[in-house]
Amino acid sequence: MLVRALYEREIARHNARQRVGEAEFLAPFARDTQAVWRKARDDKRPTHDPAGPILNAFFGWGVLPGHEVTLAGVAQPAELFVAVRLAVRGRTRTATVQLVREAGALRIADIAYESGESFLAYNRRRAGTK
């Protein structure tokens, strides 16, 4: 399963504290999602976000470097949705990956977390788009 392999790779990188370049990070995401992320990153306006948890794109809110992450399970409740169960510092959480077909391949349109904004919603807000 595409999403399982992606998460296994990202977990291994995270736990080894390996950094990846922008192109490699964005490769699994849909073109529209990539564009929103780039716009949010390039926007120099103050975000007015309170100091608090940061967002790890694949694992969710508050997962910092050094926090051990393990894969607890992957299920596909619908054709273009995959539920990824993770354990972060011993506590389980679920990331729901929404997929889209793009040029014959599946790409990530969004990732929703158990709490807080989804990956796309967070970046749209930061980019000043809806």
What does this structure look like?
By secondary structure, this protein is of the alpha+beta class. It has one domain (2-43, 63-127). The chain has helices at 2-15, 22-26, 31-42, 119-127, and strands spanning 55-56, 60-61, 69-78, 81-88, 91-102, 105-113. A 4-stranded antiparallel beta sheet has the order 3-4-5-6. A two-stranded antiparallel sheet has the order 1-2. α3 crosses α4. The longest helix is centred in the first third of the chain and has 14 residues, at 2-15. The relative contact order is 0.20. The model has no long low-confidence stretch (mean pLDDT 92).
Beta-strand share of residues:
25-35%
Largest sheet: 4 strands, antiparallel
| Quaternary organization | single chain
Low-pLDDT stretches: none
What order do the SSEs take from the amino end to the carboxyl end, as H and E? Answer: HHHEEEEEEH
Compute the number of structural domains: 1
- DSSP, total strands: 6
Gyration radius (Cα, Å) is 14 Å
Q: Whole-number average pLDDT?
A: 92
Structural class: alpha+beta
TL;DR?
The chain is of the alpha+beta class and 130 residues long. The protein has 4 helices and 6 strands, in the order αααββββββα.
Properties at a glance:
4-stranded antiparallel β-sheet; alpha+beta; 6 strands; globular; 4 helices; 130 residues
Helix/strand layout:
Layout: H1 2-15, H2 22-26, H3 31-42, E1 55-56, E2 60-61, E3 69-78, E4 81-88, E5 91-102, E6 105-113, H4 119-127
Antiparallel strand pairs: 1-2, 3-4, 4-5, 5-6
Helix pairs in contact: 3-4
